[in-house]
Design brief:
With 166 residues, this protein is mainly α. It is built from 6 helices and no strands. It has helices spanning 2-41, 43-53, 55-84, 88-107, 110-118, 126-165.
Length: 166
């Protein structure tokens, strides 16, 4: 039973971390550029509130749910691994890196900056918009990088388990 819990937690953490890493990489490479263009053109203030108030809200809620589950899954896997005394180093690396992206997002001030740009009905002040455009892609690349570290630590667990069997 303990083995089943361990591997179920590992699977959930791995899948969710891979998905959220994909979200962040996609944001950094494509969506960030599009939002930057919308912001620079003045279209964001006119179109985004309408989008967010309709179909965009459900997508954003789903994104937050998956991102929240990802953080919970890596923390749960770390707790299970520590309790089972199995693959503790990989689990701790995965938990720290898997939760670090959220800390970076808000501790850097980007979360508040993002909220100021995307939640206002009016156009963001020029200095706020410029800071958002300067940080948008790079900070999401940092998020993708930390999530990649977490994913690699997680994917190392079954490989280490296979090596121990030999």
């Amino acid at each position: 039973m303990a083995n089943r819990v361990f591997w179920s937690c590992w699977l959930a953490a791995s899948v969710l971390t891979g998905v959220v890493a994909g979200f962040m990489l996609g944001h950094a490479l494509i969506l960030a550029r599009f939002l930057d263009w919308l912001l620079a053109s003045g279209l964001l203030a006119r179109t985004y509130p309408v989008f967010r108030g309709s179909a965009g809200r459900a997508g954003l809620d789903a994104y937050y749910a998956v991102a929240g589950l990802q953080v919970l899954a890596v923390l749960a896997f770390a707790a299970v691994a520590l309790a089972a005394r199995r693959h503790r180093a990989a689990a701790v690396v995965a938990a720290v890196a898997g939760a670090l992206w959220v800390v970076v997002h808000y501790a850097s001030g980007f979360g508040a900056l993002e909220a100021a740009v995307l939640q206002g009905a009016a156009e963001a002040p020029a200095e706020v918009a410029a800071r958002f455009r300067a940080w948008n892609a790079p900070i999401h690349l940092v998020h993708a990088g930390t999530l990649l570290v977490a994913l690699l630590a997680l994917l190392g667990v079954p490989l280490a388990a296979l090596r121990r069997r030999r």
